[in-house]
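Regression check, zinc ion case 81:
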Amino acid sequence: MSNIALSNKALKLMRLCDLNGFDSLDDLLLATALKDAVCPAICMTEGCDHTADMEPDQDQGFCEACGGNTLVSVLVLAGLI
Ligand SMILES: [Zn+2]
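Current build output:
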């Protein structure tokens, strides 16, 4: 994976924290771990920051905003799955 993709991942993780009202990724991951079935996911398309609750291992969820199969769960983004 290229450096560009990695920094985009980091950007999306930060954005996901912002949108969910968390100051740090650790807080977001902890809150996610305490939930059972779903976790926050964000669209990886540039310029689209649509979020939704997805299965924890989701890496190609459907984005209602841009129509791509581009939603990736925070756990996949953070490399925990
Ligand atoms: Zn999208």
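Comparison notes: The mean pLDDT is 90. Residues 20 and 36 are 17 Å apart (CA to CA). No diff flagged against the previous build.
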